[in-house]
Amino acid sequence: MQSDLISILLGFIEGFALIISPCILPILPIVLASSLVSSKQRPLGIISGFTLTFALFAFFSRQLVQYTGIDVDAVRHLSYLILLLLGLTMISSYLSEKFGRLTQRLSQVGSAFPSVNNPQGGFYSGLFLGGLISIIWTPCAGPILAAVIVQTVIQKTTIISFFTLLAFALGAAVPMFIMAFYGRKLIDTFGFFKQKALLFRKILGVIIIASVGYMIYQEKGYSASFTIPETTVQLSTSLVDGLLIPYKAPAIEDIEAWINSPPLKINELKGKVVLIDFWTYSCINCVRTLPYLEDWYHKYRNKGLVIIGVHSPEFAFEKNLDNVRNAVKRDGILYPVALDNQFTTWRNYNNHYWPAHYLIDKQGEVVYQHFGEGLYDVTENNIRFLLGIDALPQEKQTATQSYSYLETPETYLGYARADRSLSPYLIHDKIAHYSFPEKLPLNAWALQGEWQVSEDKIIAGTSNASLKIHFKARKVFMVMSNPTGKPIRVQVLLNGKPLVNNQGKEVKNSSILVNRDSIYEVVNNKQFTSGLLQIITTEPGVEIYTFTFGN
Q1: Which residue, 17, 122, 289, 412, has fewest beta-carbon neighbours within 10 Å?
Q2: Using an 8 Å Cβ cutoff, are 1 and 215 in contact?
Q3: Nearest residue to 326 via CA among 311, 305, 342
Q4: With contact defined as beta carbons under 8 Å apart, do 174 and 16 qualify?
Q5: pTM for this model (two decimals)
Q6: Is 456 helix (H, G, I), strand (E, B) or coil?
Q7: Kind of pairing, strands 511-514 and 507-508?
Q8: Are residues 212 and 237 in the same domain?
Q9: Do both 148 and 14 map to the same domain?
Q10: Per residue in 393-414, pLDDT tens?
Q11: Burial, 113: exposed, middle or buried (Cβ in 10 Å; 0-12, 13-18, 19+)?
């Protein structure tokens, strides 16, 4: 997250820094001339054209890299080197001069379009002129523009690239706006910027080098992932992050079965503090919250706390009572679990997430909500406050999970939720033959052999059917099921070799025995790294739903 914010801030600074480009001199008269006309539409058109052209150029520069199958890691590492060189170029007057000579001739292109700068024109002529100015300015911006293009390329997600690019465009538009609307006043003061241009460029170069150093520092693992810190639970005289407007707790209803308890009703639990946990047993994020829930259950069940795990299935096999009962036993869950197979209770709470926690006070009102992992100290603090416990010693909570901004996201294999940009072309609901591509980009997956792709899973159609995924994480998990009634073994390869040293707890002799419908830990690396994981079936019938990742 810190690296993303730095990239976005850098984008704005670099966009604004274009004002000190030496190529401002041949362009300045054109922009300032627009401030002399009475129409406000023409300056606005110039700004819009300038910003839009820059945005399209930088965005498609990133898309070109993304969709050509180039190794993103290689691009990222090369990009760091380029950014460092660009920073040095900005600091060194000699290097800046050499760089400028390579593109200086292009700055003269603007003189070939004198008719465009018609001061009587309106928005659309200004739009064209702004685009033309950006094209002229692009090579003259030199390392400044190159730096932001590289930054958009190395971003992991399109959304972060978009915000980096947007910040850059806004930064570039600010001086354009000022020049277009307040050109007369700027003429008197522009000499200051001209005189200090070299200093500003050097400062920007130092910022870029420092930022690259920070991003490299993160990627090497010193802070590439962040861990839920060890915290001390603080007593509070009020709820922390409580709801501004509490509401009556919705009913728990249409439950197919209860585990560890007879049926419970919310209206019969008044006088108790109730924690509703929406979960599903093959969700790794849910599984990672279980130790905290079990700890709270043991500490506070005799003090008035009731925990209810509402099991709302993500996949069809999670509706099976025996599967859920086995998972509850395997995970050591002792508090009540309700099977919400029809999602009635889920909808009653208007829930959208696994896991999700709803804390209900003794009057039967929902007073606190939390979605996802983390903030366990806040949740426990609120439990204690609602229970009226104010004399317990402070207790430390130690983190069990860390996260990385570079980690491969959860990957769904069924055609309904598969990311088309990272998956093969999928034939729906019938067996088809697939082949591996020559190269697999980071976060992408591919199939080989006979597979049937269903809405929420893929099914091996024959033995030796194979699945590959190019991941970046410390741990890899798979959700698999086996409806054949007999155990099926799948082989596991990491980077083309048997998985031995970094095997997950379900892997034995570089293979997994799929004998239950559940989540399986496949890879457990000692450090955060990338790799090519391959799964090979020994018999048809294995169903694979998703990959999840962790640190």
Answers
A1: 122
A2: no
A3: 311
A4: yes
A5: 0.55
A6: coil
A7: antiparallel
A8: no
A9: yes
A10: 555 444 444 445 478 888 999 9
A11: middle
